[in-house]
């Protein structure tokens, strides 16, 4: 294959083979000691790092993203794989819990009960377009599912097919070289292939990052299977940011600058882009916001399809009566950010248009008349990945009342910062009430992402030799355990 | 109302009021310190214990269950409420995790991140018929949701409406007396009421224990809402038990006795009833099994509807060619257990009839010719709540190969025991792959049941005064936390 051949859709026969291999690998891959899977993840990370000089140009060619951005993203991606290796080495992800037999228990003799988490089985990952490494073939879904002990089948995103194919080859080779069972990882191509895989009984869970309509359609397939499976969709988010009057007074110019950097970066193609900035009516930052926005250079979007979608949504939002342009922007050959403004009442009267994500470099400054109106706005949201508050000590009571309302509608709350840039950390939550995600109880970034692909099993009075290692008395894997009684 | 008035269905207007109060209570109830909610759970437990002499006859009248059984069940129910009070007092259920800021972090400066679990909001509980206390109005779903900080609306089971109404009054009075916000708890009646509540946007999660068709219909409603919600359905389970030849030799008579006690107890109306017993072809226990079964006394089923359903399924299963009667049983005015027998090949050839739960006192002894055939049978199951193995040290390799297969198909694995009787313990898993439950990652019994009704929120760089107590530096609630870095 040369660099310009198209990547054909995976055939039904090839998909069948991939799924059969994944199902066949589930038992042995899941049974590997965590330290072994940690070694495999490290090998994948090393192989991807080693291939950087090949992968970065490939990613640039297919995504219009900058070398600096992609270099950082690849680093983050291999960091993430190694972080999950650490999670495996540490072992508390297994949730091992031992409750010894107790003949004197209040409700009558209690048996010996030992509980731990086991892998769900083959996981289908729908790759995203906007992070060709970190949320694509080698991304967080793949890393966390492999860490959990689940074979992974990635449905590649059509936005960067050759990069996906090449990364898939590198991962498969690294796994195979280091002794992973054949079938623990595979990449498939094509829309129909993805939905066929999602319907296949051998697939036990799926993860997705993308738009609300696509994510909801896939969620509906997963939920309507004869045997429904967990579907972790990260869909759309407005990521509102609220600024109190005192914060405007104390740091108005800095806030304007930070906001523009956050909403316009990567041509606004981030799930945590702040799509709405709430300012007091007399904020006086219009000129600063407009001029900062105009200073952002031209950036081509990830694909023509996304560019068209952006143009259409931009026209729709700009056309709402009561919405005014602060910075016109450009949408010809690439994009320069567009900044709009309106007030809370116009926003609330046009929820269907204005309270829906615009994927691209557009944001709306919304002015509130008083604290009550700001609180009213904070109650208008559906679920979000993030919500941000800029406040000062002197108006912390108002700030607290906003934060409280935002907490019910978001998975991450930021103070005096901006939501873009998601740290890969044990305390990260990248998820939120619908439609931010289809299951707000889980995260797709950070070490807790592994929890999505595990389920508990309890062993009752099972003798030592038949227990899994993590539950045996002498704890051969030396995993942290909760022992009761 | 006198003891014989029917309980009318909740009107649409009354349901609206109940849901509005529940939504109104969500913030204040969820914000109570865990120790406060622990006190409320204790007060509910005390009130139910104090009402035992009134509640037990009421339960007996509506369920045909014995006083001894119901006395034990009420004790278990109040124990469970107090156990969740302990979970709250201990505090690790909050999953508080602190990852301090790190300017030298590998991927660039990392903010201060603090993560904890918060309540989902109002939970709808569909009560079960077979445990009028422990899986009904005051049961595990209610206890765990209240513990999580979620207001609870119980849709009462029509099998014991007056008991449900009375228990609801007692719980509401205890909560109100001890200062819970109005609306933290309510009971509603009627099928249409339940489905209307499930569709209501104020309801944020639902739990159900019952049959596969009913549970699946409700799951489908929950998943197809404009905003889908988590639905925890505990549906049907066959609970297969496998006995190795060495176990038959060592303890055949004891196994026969234990099995009959387990499958026939409470007229077989338990979700963990062993519905299939796998024995080697030459087991020689037919007479023992048949005579033990015949010795079980007449037991009326919970309701006429369940009795009719049982008679119809019993006729269907008994009519399969190749299925032979070991103990005929009775189904006239009440039931005496029915024990059938067949072989693995007949079982596999009639999956649709024989590999589906019979709710009532019937079980099937299935003979296997050799180890391979037993393993083949162990691979035939869909999801189960439990799977059981009886083995001896001398055939532990065969046992291990069975256990391995059963692990992929069950939430709890028992060794040389019987699955009925579910200990309320931190290490319990009462859940399993579909159709045992609609979400195998969670349990409806044991302290981990609280995890169903919580979601994570991360606070990024939020100052001490705006942080929830559990995440503040000085840890005023003194909850266990994971602190990184």
UniProtKB/TrEMBL annotation, chains A, B:
Keyword Ligase: no
Domain Aldehyde dehydrogenase positions: 7-280
Domain of life: Bacteria
Keywords noted in UniProt: Oxidoreductase
GO molecular function, a single term: oxidoreductase activity, acting on the aldehyde or oxo group of donors, NAD or NADP as acceptor
EC number(s) given by UniProt: 1.2.1.-
A Pfam family annotated for this UniProt entry: Aldedh
Coiled-coil residue windows: none
Protein name as it appears in the record: Aldehyde dehydrogenase, NAD-dependent
Annotated source species: Saccharopolyspora erythraea (strain ATCC 11635 / DSM 40517 / JCM 4748 / NBRC 13426 / NCIMB 8594 / NRRL 2338)
């Amino acid at each position: 294959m040369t660099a310009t051949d198209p990547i054909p859709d995976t055939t039904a026969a090839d998909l069948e083979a991939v799924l059969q291999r994944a199902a066949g690998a589930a038992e042995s891959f899941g049974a590997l000691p965590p330290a072994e899977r940690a070694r495999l993840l490290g090998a994948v990370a090393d192989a991807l790092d080693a291939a950087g000089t090949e992968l970065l140009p490939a990613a640039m060619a297919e995504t219009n993203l900058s070398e600096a951005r992609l270099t950082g993203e690849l680093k983050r991606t291999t960091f993430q794989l190694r972080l999950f290796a650490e999670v495996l080495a540490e072992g508390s992800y297994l949730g091992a819990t031992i409750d010894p037999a107790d003949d004197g228990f209040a409700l009558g003799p209690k048996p010996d009960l030992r509980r731990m988490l086991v892998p769900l089985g083959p996981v289908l990952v729908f790759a995203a377009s906007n992070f060709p490494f970190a949320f694509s073939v080698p991304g967080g879904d793949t890393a966390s599912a492999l860490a959990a002990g689940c074979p992974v089948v990635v449905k590649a995103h059509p936005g960067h097919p050759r990069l996906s194919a090449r990364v898939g080859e590198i991962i498969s080779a690294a796994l195979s070289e280091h002794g992973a069972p054949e079938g623990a990882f595979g990449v498939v191509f094509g829309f129909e292939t993805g939905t066929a895989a999602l319907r296949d009984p051998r697939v036990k869970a799926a993860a997705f990052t993308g738009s609300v309509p696509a994510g909801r359609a896939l969620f509906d397939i997963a939920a309507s299977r004869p045997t429904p499976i967990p579907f972790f969709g990260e869909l759309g988010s407005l990521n509102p940011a609220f600024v109190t009057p005192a914060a405007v007074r104390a740091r108005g110019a800095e806030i304007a600058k930070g906001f523009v950097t956050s909403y316009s970066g990567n041509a606004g193609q981030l799930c945590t882009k702040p799509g709405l900035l709430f300012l007091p009516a007399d904020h006086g930052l219009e000129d600063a916001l407009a001029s900062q926005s105009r200073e952002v250079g031209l950036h081509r979007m990830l694909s023509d399809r996304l560019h068209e979608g952006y143009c259409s949504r931009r026209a729709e939002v700009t056309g709402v009566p009561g919405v005014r342009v602060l910075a016109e922007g450009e949408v010809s050959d690439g994009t320069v950010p567009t900044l709009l403004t309106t007030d809370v009442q116009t926003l609330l009267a046009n929820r269907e248009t204005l309270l829906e994500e615009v994927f691209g470099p557009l944001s709306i400054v919304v002015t509130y008349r008083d604290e009550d109106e700001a609180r009213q706005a904070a109650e208008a949201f559906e679920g979000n990945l993030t919500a941000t508050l800029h406040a000062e000590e002197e108006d912390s009571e108002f700030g607290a009342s906003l934060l409280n309302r935002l907490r019910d509608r978001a998975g991450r709350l930021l103070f005096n910062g901006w939501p873009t840039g998601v740290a890969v950390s044990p305390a990260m939550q990248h998820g939120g009430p619908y439609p931010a995600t289809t299951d707000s109880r889980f995260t797709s970034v950070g070490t807790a992402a592994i929890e999505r692909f595990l389920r508990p099993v309890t062993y009752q009075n099972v003798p030592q030799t038949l227990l899994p290692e993590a539950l045996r008395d002498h704890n051969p894997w030396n995993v942290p355990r909760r022992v009761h009684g």
